[in-house]
């Protein structure tokens, strides 16, 4: 139980910008940290839904509402997943050889492809949240955010990492990866209980995150935190589009 408590604390400290009231870190708790990621995602998704409900209580213009909702998860996560999306955009779209793509992936400088992809993603998310939204649909967000993080955790735990990945020293586990994928399947099943077309959002989010992992891993030759972040970012964006459009 102590390892799970430490793992959740590590997960909160690394993947959430909200100050962590209990800071713990232990090298042997990486698997617990990753398996706690979906639960942290569900918590942040609930905050996202509550934030949207709160905004709806005031006569806020729709463009301002859309801007706030589109940017909320980026801010709450401290932009860590968005950083991975941008790094992968620079590396993959450079169309260089594998060794050079990996170098670009770890380069701290921001390239033109990252800026272009970020702009397109921001416009996409803003356009999605500009649509007319039934307040009841917002309660799908916790499940959606948890589901994409199940995919991310399963990929990191079960797939061979890049040599430059911070997860290369972690002991990988097929059973832990399977647990993450089972949680993803549970999220998809629970998604079918959502009203109206809400049942589509979780399968779309999971499929989008999984496809992102598959394509980026094949292009870069291994799994890493940047691919994980890109999968979460695109999974959430596509899931929200399926929910709201």
Task: Summarize the topology.
Elements: H1 2-15, H2 30-56, H3 62-76, H4 80-93, H5 98-106, H6 112-129, H7 141-158, H8 174-191, H9 201-220, H10 225-244
Task: Explain the overall architecture.
It is globular and about 50 Å long. The termini are far apart. Helix content is 71%, strand content 0%. The protein contains ten helices and no strands. The model has no long low-confidence stretch (mean pLDDT 91). The protein is mostly helical. Helix 1 (2-15) packs across helix 2 (30-56), helix 4 (80-93) packs antiparallel against helix 5 and helix 9 runs antiparallel to helix 10.
Concise account of the structure shown:
With 245 residues, the protein is mostly helical.
Keywords:
single chain, 245 residues, mainly alpha, 71% helix, 0% strand
Q: Given the helix and strand composition, which structural class is it?
A: mainly alpha
Spatial extent as radius of gyration: 17 Å
Mean pLDDT: 91
- Along the chain, the helix and strand elements come as HHHHHHHHHH
Largest sheet: none
The number of helices is: 10
Percent of residues in β-strands: under 5%
Alpha-carbon distance between the two ends: 42 Å
Poorly predicted ranges:
none
Indicate the percent of residues in helices. Answer: over 70%
* Inertia-based shape: globular
- Structure summary, number of beta strands: 0
